[in-house]
Amino acid sequence: MTKPAFAAAILATTTILSGTAAHADLNLYCSAQEEWCQIMAKSFEEATGIDVAMTRKSSGETFAQVKAEASNPKGDVWWGGTGDPHLQAAEEDLTEAYVSPMREQLHPWAIAQAEASGDRTIGIYFGGLGFGYNTDMLAKAGLPAPACWEDLTKPEFKGKVQMANPNSSGTAYTTLATIVQLFGEEKGFDYMKRLHANINQYTKSGSAPIKAAGQGETLVGIVFLHDSVAQAVAGFPIATVAPCEGTGYEIGSMSIIKGARNIDEAKKFYDWALSVEAQDLALQVNAFQIMSNVGAAKSDKAPDLSAIKLIDYDFKKYGSAEERKRLLSKWDTEVSTLPQ
Q1: Are 291 and 282 contacting, i.e. CB atoms less than 8 angstroms apart?
Q2: 177 CA to centre of own chain
Q3: What is the distance between the alpha carbons of residues 161 and 42, in angstroms, rounded to a whole number?
Q4: Rounded distance, CA 138 to CA 134, Å?
Q5: How would you class 33 by CB atoms within 10 Å of its CB: exposed for 0-12, middle for 13-18, buried for 19 or more?
Q6: Per-residue pLDDT of the chain (340 residues; tens, 9 = 90+)
Q7: Cα–Cα distance for residue pair 127/125, rounded to 1 Å
Q8: What is the value of pTM for the model shown?
Q9: 188-196: which pairs have CB atoms within 8 A and are 24 or more residues apart?
Q10: Other C-beta atoms within 10 Å of 234: how many?
């Protein structure tokens, strides 16, 4: 599927409507960074002439919205965000099965995501988990550079670490699921409790902690590595760390919402979003994930995943509705309620 194929009809003007589906041919729910969501919506409009209403929310929030709207769907496509809630949406029959003709151009990990969901979602990007820290603040505090997950629980980092809330953020849920898989559930929750003692704030958005670190509002932000790299590229004093013990990763995903009112337009967006042309847009907004199309461009600034100790993340288990609900409930009762 080539760029000319999508450029047959180009709008003279482009309108992106945030939060409203009025007069739109496609209602897009987007869980990536705001700039990426905007350029995806605008570029699809320009390529196809299809009007897009785009709403940006974190993956946890979007999942909750899709579920709440199940009896009267308002969205057509959910693009971006961690794969776990997409897999849960598939399991709960909130999304449609679709096999794109673009599938043969994708990395095996993207197709594996589709197969795990009965073709109700598909991988669009890959990103490792870790953290970043403000080098200026670290030097001023006279602290050693953190290199491991355990370092973040040391007394000298009390009140200096920030992460998102796993109930609203896919990044933070991936963190919780990663720690449980890395250390085992008992030791993993013990770790989360010790980490909690050093957390200064649980944010709503997964990328917010590293943005706060860049601004000097916190020393450490637990995020996906590509979000940390993006802050460094933007000129902030951020160093990126792949934890020494090993770490998990996300397969950012895309799903067509069940009962989509604009199903034909949804499929067109789905196919276009898997093309090289669409995936190359990532670098225009400093999104440094590994994209799912094998022909998509990759920045030399992107994290080298071959040099990172990745766990064998069990997406089927930790993306299931039962396990996700259980872990979040356990975190709510055993971790978030503890004093700091």
Answers
A1: yes
A2: 14
A3: 36
A4: 6
A5: buried
A6: 444 343 333 232 233 333 333 458 999 999 999 999 999 999 999 999 999 999 999 999 999 999 999 999 999 999 999 999 999 999 999 999 999 999 999 999 999 999 999 999 999 999 999 999 999 999 999 999 999 999 999 999 999 999 999 999 999 999 999 999 999 999 999 999 999 999 999 999 999 999 999 999 999 999 999 999 999 999 999 999 999 999 999 999 999 999 999 999 999 999 999 999 999 999 999 999 999 999 999 999 999 888 999 999 999 899 899 999 999 999 999 999 999 8
A7: 7
A8: 0.85
A9: 189/330, 189/331, 189/334, 189/335, 191/149, 191/150, 191/153, 192/331, 192/335, 193/334, 193/335, 193/338, 194/153, 195/152, 195/153, 195/161, 195/163, 196/335, 196/336, 196/338, 196/340
A10: 11
104 Cβ contact partners less than 8 Å away, ≥ 6 residues apart = none
d(CA 293, CA 14): 26
Q: In the numeric block, which tokens belong to residue 300?
A: 């030399």
Type of residue numbered 3: K
Provide the sign of the torsion angle of the four alpha carbons 242, 243, 244, 248, taken in this order: negative
CA angle 201-202-205, nearest 5°? 125
